[in-house]
Amino acid sequence: MIRAIRACKTAAEERAVVRKECAAIRAAINENDQDYRHRNLAKLMFIHMLGYPTHFGQMECLKLIASTGFPEKRIGYLGLMLLLDERQEVLMLYIVGLALCALGNISSAEMARDLAPDVERLMQFRDPNIRKKAALCSIRIIKKVPDLAENFMHPASSLLKEKHHGVLITGVQLCTDLCKVSSEALEYFRENCIEGLVKTLRDIANSPYSPEYDIAGITDPFLHIRLLKLLRILGQGDADASDCMTDILAQVASRTESNKNAGNAILYECVETIMSIEDNGGLRVLAINILGRFLSNRDNNIRYVGLNMLMKAIMVDAKAVQRHRATILECVKGFI
User: Do residues 144 and 135 touch, judged by C-beta distance below 8 A?
Assistant: First the structure.
């Protein structure tokens, strides 16, 4: 590119070469080309020094800075110095994001108290990455200062309506931690959020193929598991809450494929949720049958977690476990 630009004899020729290169770089950005991202940013820095607009490549600086390789980080920081100035909003997003990451990792109780109002405000920010980092930072704050839990109940419940999976999964985790540190938060989420959580889990379980979130043919198993863990906490010791989630638990337990690890992870969490919520005989038989299938699996890790869960299940429904006695004995012989 540099050779082609230097070979230009007129300004019009130079502009034509720059337009062609910028179009190619835009196409690479749209395709999320990671292999040539650092080379494209180096080209943009040269184009910027010639006086041409390069604002479309500013986010590429942040992506390179977030990468793990040193050469990519170096180009990213060089681009940050050249392509951005104090008037650019993306620079503010970068600084706020770094501050939230630092606070979420090293904040003390005093820092948490002082900065909690700012973090709470950023949970409503328009950029989803900032909302996600603010939610993660809030988890650190409520663990350091449990008294602040009530300040985050309403913002956390609003995150449960998010369409962005990254924000949603952090919102679910924040609600889970709030329930652990505050009985008031637990009751609040039971009264206001169970129907929404059930709908979200149903939508994800029934969603069509999505390459962005798909793992082994299952849409976002990480979000599946986080939702099941939160439902388990909300259903424990509350018959009404347990009734609200029985249908979706039965659907997840019966329709999730068990031929991949992602599916087995979801089934395991679903079984643990079924065994933890208030009594539902039919669901518990279904859960114990899933554990019986785990014992027949060739993977020793899956057989182990199946046996481990059956130890808990026998305290709840011994008769259902007795039906799998032969399988359990065969499984034990296989370990000897």
Answer: no
What residue ranges do the domains of the chain occupy?
A: 2-84, 86-192, 212-336
Class of domain 86-192 as given by CATH: mainly alpha
62: Cβ–Cβ under 8 A, 6 or more apart, which residues? 76, 80, 90, 93, 94
Model confidence pLDDT, tens digit, residues 217-228:
899 999 999 999
User: Given the structure tokens 């300004």, which residue do they identify?
Assistant: 11
- Tokens of residue 110, six digits: 């005093």
Task: Quick: pLDDT tens for 10-36.
Answer: 999 999 999 999 999 988 888 887 888
